[in-house]
Amino acid sequence: MRAGTVLRTVWLIVAVGSMLLPVYAMLVVASAPDDTDLRGLVFNGFHLPENIGLLFGEGNLPTYLRNSLILCVGTGVLDVIFSAAAGYAMAQLSFPGRRVLFALVVGTLALTPMVLVIPVFLIVKELGWVNTFQGMMVPGMISAFGVFLVRQFALGIPKELLLAARVDGAGEFRIFARMAVPLLKPALITLFLVHFLAQWDNLLWPLIVANEQELWPLPVGLANFQSEVGFNYHLTTTAALVTAVPPFILMVALQRYYVAGLTFGGLKR
Amino acid sequence: MSVLGGGRVRPQAMAGVALTLPVAVFFVVFWLVPFLAAIYLSFTDYEMAGTPNWIGLANYERMFADPGFLNSAWITVVYTVCTVVPTIVLALLVAVPLSKPGGLNRRLRALVMIPAVMPLAATSMVWVIIYSDRGLANTLLGLVGIAPQSWLTSSDLAIWALVVMVVWKSMGLFVIILTAGLQALPGEVYEAAAIDGSGAVTTFTRITLPLLRRTLLFVLVISVAGSMQAFVPAFLLTGGGPAEATQVLPYYIWANAFPYEHMGYAAAMGMVLLAAMVIVSALQFGFLKGGDE
């Protein structure tokens, strides 16, 4: 029994250690003074602050970072608002078209982006939104996942509670804003986090719709970074590290919601 | 509702319509219309500059005579199988001991989240450097006396370089999901098994795996779907090369649609990818649900 525990601990440390090795290598290369040493095993001084300073002093990293923040926070907030409204209504209110809308949401969950990007691009082109922020933001603004998540969560709101409010004479919108939204808060935080992380990592759509560098978010910027910094490997790694920091901060701050977002769908019995 | 009488239903219906209207409009404009348009385009010869002409099944016939498509389809199958199986097995091997209570495990669980929370684009750039001539991969090979390899520029190795990165990246994610699933399992069953003198292996195969079925199905479905749709690793690490060795189907579809503007043909390949995904998901559900009593 005791030997088993020791073995288990050793295995876990080895396994988690190897999972962290690439992250460690990233830190080492991102802190390197120049491009000569990419082995990533031992720190060759700690030049991370200078490297970050270099990237922010010249080059487009600040622009990419700003664009990503606008994209993620902007669409994240809108997704939370619209999904909260629709998810709550679909769970708790009876209205015509409820079933059709739910079928539409579930259908969207099953769809691959590669099927949709071609016609969505043509629609965005028709609207004159190519190379604009709204072109990058609007098509990904609302996620089927969000509506579905809020709906599942809102099904758990006790009907009696809403009924009592109605008997007291509260209007439907007031009930939604004052009673449902506070009760839905954990789901809405989870949704914001999931949406933010997905958008932060979205390469395909901005790549297609934005060909002006001024508009690029980080993933597109990173894809072109090598040529931008003259195939400078250690500065590219520093840029990758900078890209990884905001999601990491969010994850640490909202760890509980992060796991909830990931395991959604996997645990219900 | 009828208890309250008809007068109460109307404001509810109005509120319901009002609250769902933005989402309904959004889904029609950015999902339903594009989906129908994609089906239509797949039967046309649409190129960005011209007008779509109906050509019936010609795109679908062309696909099965197109070496580029057949190559991509095969690479996608290999890539999917070779990422999904090791990822789930390895994630399970880490998640089972990691789900046990304990201070060290709690700390390790927090560390496992780091690879999972790394953006894929950033991860890909880091692995480009790991796979570079003087990078970490060759350093580690050197420690065991193997000559350096050109990971991303050798047509034999490049696909495996992608596979290793993706296994690493998604493993972190699945360890978290599986750990949460394992921690949600009822403790009494394990106590009963321990009283009956059940060994570790028997407990795992007879109790843990069957109880974990739902979480496993979830992990399997999202990892197969993720691998079949994977675009970013091939785009960022290899650009589909060398010599089309990493040209997975989503990459081939994107390349046909955007740089080359063969929208009709790309739409048809998108339909085939979608059909394949629906069939594979249905098989997985059938396979894992079939075992339930």
TrEMBL record, chain A:
Q: Which residue intervals define the domain ABC transmembrane type-1 in the entry?
A: 65-254
The family database entries (Gene3D superfamilies) matched by this protein are listed as: MetI-like
**Family annotation (InterPro entries):** MetI-like, MetI-like_sf
Q: Which family does it belong to?
A: Belongs to the binding-protein-dependent transport system permease family.
Family annotation (PROSITE patterns): ABC_TM1
User: Keyword set for this entry?
Assistant: Cell membrane, Membrane, Sugar transport, Transmembrane, Transmembrane helix, Transport
Q: What is its main location?
A: membrane
Presence of the UniProt keyword Cell membrane in the record:
yes
Q: What is this protein called?
A: Multiple sugar transport system permease protein
Q: Does the keyword Transcription apply?
A: no
Q: Where in the cell is it found?
A: Cell membrane
Enumerate the transmembrane spans: 12-32, 68-88, 100-124, 136-154, 175-198, 239-259
Membrane topology per record: Multi-pass membrane protein
Q: Which domain of life is it from?
A: Bacteria
UniProtKB/TrEMBL annotation, chain B:
Against InterPro entries, the record matches this protein to:
ABC_transporter_permease, MetI-like, MetI-like_sf
Q: Localized where?
A: Cell membrane
Q: How does it sit in the membrane?
A: Multi-pass membrane protein
Keywords for the protein's UniProt record, in alphabetical order: Cell membrane, Membrane, Sugar transport, Transmembrane, Transmembrane helix, Transport
Q: Which residues form the ABC transmembrane type-1 domain?
A: 73-284
Q: Which residues cross the membrane?
A: 21-43, 73-98, 110-130, 157-178, 216-243, 263-288
Gene3D superfamilies to which the protein is assigned, alphabetical: MetI-like
PANTHER family from the entry?
A: ABC TRANSPORTER PERMEASE PROTEIN (PTHR30193), DIACETYLCHITOBIOSE UPTAKE SYSTEM PERMEASE PROTEIN NGCF (PTHR30193:SF41)
User: What family is this protein classified in?
Assistant: Belongs to the binding-protein-dependent transport system permease family.
Name of protein = Multiple sugar transport system permease protein
State the organism of origin. Streptosporangium brasiliense
